[in-house]
């Protein structure tokens, strides 16, 4: 159970507040654009909370969460999982407070992005396209985003505010004072740092028919695509060339994103490790603590992008990547807090070592929490990640052992099958069974075979 869920009880109070106007237009955007990403439970929670916004919110007029759970017919875990999806999509802010009446949650509803802004956001628009498919995505975009009317020969004669209204000078000066620290809102990808050589891009574009001015207009989109799909400058220029409208010399950014997604899907089916980047040498001091199986996984983890790696892992499990799994991986990659190889080690641990069917709900929460801890510890290599996870697992086992001596009634818990790198070297190893070997090594053996064939 996640720490956030442990903090909640059906008896806890809640109060709903909002500073935004959320009307029929906003709800249409939430239903058609956000709901495919967050699910029906989250949509139900948002709608119910919107109906319970008080005209004058008061912490003393709190109600119990049991009321929400009964109306929604949800358990506490399902409510929590849906709530954090609303938070992740920027539709809800949650605050917690303890006072003489007990614990109370303050839910502050946020207005959704406008439809036009939603489709301009690279991450959200690509996630929606992945969720609905390109045909339905295009239909929604056509419904919400109206085409611009071109009137290049017209002259603007619009009057300004002060051309029409008269304001006292002292009032105008007072209201025009703005703090120097105020900054406009950022897109989801504004904080992402991607290793793109802009000058090299310009040199490549100078040899093509794409105007160099299109770089500044499409830079955020190019950053997102390079980050998610591992494309270099030359590959990005090729996408720009394919998406250029020769009539007005403008690049269709939506087409660029669509082409990048199609190219990724096509190349993944034909991908061999030989096509990936060369791996960095392993630190001998760290490798001394790892087994041959560990080293094999490290080599493989450096060959794939996280989106490719999870596709490969799920394919070997005769399964498929869900929309939420793709969203979880994309979000972590875009944060740029962990190298791709470290993310791949975590993916292998939670999907293969722990034999979870999907990286969703509580498993996704544990995955994200582990990623945050590795980032906090400044883990930069898959070797370091393996050593740290092994030590963390040892501490967790010791903590469980201590609980057995305090008279608490313990439930019988089935032990998780862990790879060698997640086990304590000091702990005596039992003789592996045939089933153990299948669980621990089948996936790695297959990937190693691909590496050998490509050499």
Q: Could you give the topology of this structure?
A:
Elements: H1 3-6, E1 13-18, H2 24-38, H3 40-51, E2 63-64, H4 65-72, H5 76-88, E3 92-99, E4 102-109, H6 115-120, H7 122-132, H8 134-144, H9 161-164, H10 169-175, H11 198-206, H12 214-229, H13 233-242, E5 244-245, E6 250-251, H14 253-270, H15 284-287, H16 292-301, H17 306-316, H18 323-335, H19 340-353, H20 361-376, H21 382-403, H22 434-454
Parallel strand pairs: 1-4
Antiparallel strand pairs: 1-2, 3-4, 5-6
Helix pairs in contact: 2-3, 2-7, 3-5, 7-8, 7-18, 11-13, 12-14, 16-22, 17-19, 19-20, 19-21
Give an overview of the whole structure.
- The protein is an alpha+beta fold.
- A four-stranded mixed beta sheet has the order 2-1-4-3. Strands 5-6 form a two-stranded antiparallel ribbon.
- Helices cover 56% and strands 6% of the residues.
- Helix 2 (24-38) runs antiparallel to helix 3, helix 7 (122-132) crosses helix 8 and helix 19 runs antiparallel to helix 20.
- The protein has helices at 3-6, 24-38, 40-51, 65-72, 76-88, 115-120, 122-132, 134-144, 161-164, 169-175, 198-206, 214-229, 233-242, 253-270, 284-287, 292-301, 306-316, 323-335, 340-353, 361-376, 382-403, 434-454, and strands at 13-18, 63-64, 92-99, 102-109, 244-245, 250-251.
Brief overview:
The protein is 56% helix and 6% strand. It is built from 22 helices and six strands. Helix 11 crosses helix 13 and helix 19 runs antiparallel to helix 20.
């Amino acid at each position: 159970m996640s720490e956030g869920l442990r903090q909640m009880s059906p008896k806890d109070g809640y109060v709903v507040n909002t500073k935004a106007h959320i009307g029929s237009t906003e709800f249409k955007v939430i239903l058609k654009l956000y709901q495919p990403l967050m699910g029906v439970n989250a949509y139900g929670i948002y709608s119910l909370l919107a109906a319970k916004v008080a005209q004058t919110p008061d912490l003393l007029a709190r109600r119990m969460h049991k009321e929400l759970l009964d109306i929604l017919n949800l358990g506490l875990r399902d409510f929590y999982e849906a709530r954090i999806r609303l938070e992740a999509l920027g539709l809800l802010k949650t605050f917690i407070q303890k006072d003489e009446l007990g614990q109370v949650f303050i839910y502050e509803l946020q207005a959704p992005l406008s439809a036009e802004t939603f489709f301009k956001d690279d991450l959200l628009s690509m996630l929606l396209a992945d969720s609905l498919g390109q045909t339905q995505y295009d239909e929604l975009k056509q419904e919400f985003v109206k085409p611009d009317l071109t009137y290049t020969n017209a002259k603007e004669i619009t009057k300004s505010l002060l051309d029409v209204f008269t304001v006292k000078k002292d009032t105008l000066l007072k209201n025009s004072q703005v703090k120097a620290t105020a900054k406009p809102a950022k897109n989801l990808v504004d904080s992402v740092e991607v290793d793109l050589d802009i000058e090299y891009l310009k040199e490549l574009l100078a040899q093509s028919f794409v105007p160099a001015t299109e770089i500044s207009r499409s830079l955020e989109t190019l950053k997102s695509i390079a980050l998610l799909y591992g494309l270099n400058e030359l590959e990005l220029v090729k996408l720009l060339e394919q998406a250029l409208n020769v009539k007005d010399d403008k690049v269709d950014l939506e087409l660029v994103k669509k082409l990048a997604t199609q190219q990724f899907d096509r190349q993944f089916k034909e991908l061999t490790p030989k096509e990936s980047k060369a791996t960095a040498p392993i630190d001998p001091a760290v490798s001394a603590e790892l087994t041959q199986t560990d080293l094999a996984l490290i080599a493989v983890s450096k060959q794939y992008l996280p989106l490719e790696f999870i596709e490969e892992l799920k394919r070997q499990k005769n399964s498929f990547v869900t929309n939420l799994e793709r969203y979880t991986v994309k979000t972590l990659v875009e944060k740029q807090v962990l190298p791709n190889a470290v993310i791949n080690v975590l993916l292998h641990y939670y999907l293969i070592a722990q034999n979870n069917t999907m990286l969703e709900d509580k498993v996704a929460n544990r995955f994200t929490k582990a990623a945050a801890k590795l980032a906090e510890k400044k883990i930069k290599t898959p070797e370091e990640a393996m050593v740290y996870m092994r030590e963390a697992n040892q501490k967790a086992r010791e903590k469980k052992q201590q609980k057995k001596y305090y008279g608490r009634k313990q439930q019988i818990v089935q032990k998780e099958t862990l790879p060698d790198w997640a086990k304590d070297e000091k702990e005596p190893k039992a003789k592996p069974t045939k089933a153990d070997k299948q669980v621990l090594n089948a996936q790695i053996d297959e990937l190693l075979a691909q590496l050998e064939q490509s050499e």
